[in-house]
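Pasting as-is:
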Amino acid sequence: MGIGRHIQGSQIFDYWRDPDRLLLEHFTDGDRFDASVEPGWAPMSASGLAQWGPPATADFLGGGPSPALLRDAIAALRADNEIDLPRLLALAKAMRP
C-alpha cells in the first residue's frame, strides 16, 4: 500500500497485509506533545489520512459491511466490554463533518 506521512502526528507510515489478510501499520517519527498542547478534533476523511503517499485504496478503506461483519459487531456490542451503543453513537457523531 506504500509509504506516506500522516497528517495527525506526522508519523512516517507503511501499511501492508499479513498472510492472514490483516492490515498492519509500521510507523515512526511521531510528534511529541505535553499538557500545554490543547486537544482538538480533525474530520476523518480519505483525503485527510496523509500529507503525502499513495492514495488510499478501496482495500485500505474497506468496503460495505458484510452480513457477517454486522452480526459480529452486534454481538460485540452485547458483550461485556467498554464499547456500548451510547459510546458508538458518540464516536459516529464525532466523525461527522
